[in-house]
Amino acid sequence: MPNLLIIDDNPAVATALEVLFSLHDIATLHAQTPEAGLAMLQGESVDLVIQDMNFTEDTTSGDEGVALFAQIRAQHPDLPVILLTAWTHLSSAVELIKAGAADYVAKPWDDRKLLATVNNLLELAEARSELDRRRSRERARQAQLADKYDLRDVVFDDPASERVIALACQVARSELPVLITGPNGSGKEKIAEIVQANSSVRNGAFVTLNCGALPSELIEAELFGADAGAYTGANKAREGKFEAADGGTLFLDEIGNLPLAGQMKLLRVLETGRFERLGSNRERQVSVRVISATNADLPALIREGSFREDLYYRLNAIELALPPLSERPGDILPLAESFRPADKPIGDSARAALLRHPWPGNVRELRNVVQRAGLLATGDRIQAADLNLPKPSGAPKQSVSAEPDRAGIEAALARAGGVIAQAAADLGLSRQALYRRMDRFGIKLP
């Protein structure tokens, strides 16, 4: 049963409110003075406060209510507070709303409206508490993951990232090939590092080859090596990536760019561990854990005839699908903090802009934007203007003065992962203003 604290010097007011709420299964506590109310908050579990604005006889300025609210807010920053006010100090109540009060109710109040306000605030408070509990559980899981595995200092705070990282740790000990899928710049190589760091060959070499960064005629030589004279310019024998990774891990990025001839040889190595250098008939034996990655649609390449189906199934024994950064909003601010210079904190306007941006370039784009802003920012903090982010193309532009509709509010909440402060900043609203609009549209936190 929720617990509500009434701080009002008038016993008749307290009694009327106690009767009203008791009829709707809401327990009430009563304090007649600000001091007694603050003491009760220290010793009792309270979900919501209703406070008067004046406590001394013949006083109508509202200053006592302002002071009480400031003390409640300082000691309990997330506790919703409803102000009981008369028209003579309505302006004080409005100022307190701007400072964080949940709402104000004019005397004499309408029971139905007051009850609706209280129920909405209690539901929102419970939703916030559940979100806090969920985040606490997530952070506990993340801490356990970091204690048990070598996460290579990866920065993450989104459940979607946690799931991929946990699976990468789980499959790391297997000798099966791993295929990491995801868009460019999303962090696929970091996932590969985690797999290697927790594998049975973690003490071996970790060798990487970007198959999309080399001409097709050189990829085979890079993979398998070449004897002297194997091709024009090959003046001496050279070791390939498979030989360099013997006893360790070979990470093949952009595997979809591997030419068909190289695909056939790669399939043979995966099946037998044997290969020949270009220009050589001598067979070589290696033991290599292969991790591959791609941003391409490999099944579509198979249908086009540019990727071997048998190689796909051999590489895809275990798939780790890394979502784009736009689908991991909880990672955005922690990653941005890790990229910024130590002497340049990220200001509130920049944090809101970072959460609004769709990040088509993923983590790579975020790193470049934050590092550039840290270098060019002239103030003591990185602000939104320093980020130089374009407006999202095709997205509705939300200004501070524009009134968000239901879809806009739901989209902001989704981008912020249900974090009210972030969603409110995204929409250019205060938390209290956002709560009131959520009430109006019947929107609940996920």
Characterise the protein shown here.
Mean pLDDT is 87; it is low at 394-401. A 5-stranded parallel beta sheet has the order 2-1-3-4-5, with helices on both faces. Helix content is 47%, strand content 12%. Helix 6 packs parallel to helix 7 (188-197) and helix 18 (420-427) packs across helix 19. It folds into 3 domains: 3-128, Response regulator (Rossmann fold, 3-Layer(aba) Sandwich), CATH 3.40.50; 150-323, 3-Layer(aba) Sandwich (Rossmann fold); 327-441, Helicase, Ruva Protein, domain 3, CATH 1.10.8. With 446 residues, it is of the alpha/beta class. The protein has 19 helices and 12 strands. A hairpin with a 6-residue loop joins strand 9 and strand 10 (283-285). It is elongated, with a radius of gyration of 30 Å. The longest helix is centred in the N-terminal third of the chain and has 38 residues, at 111-148.
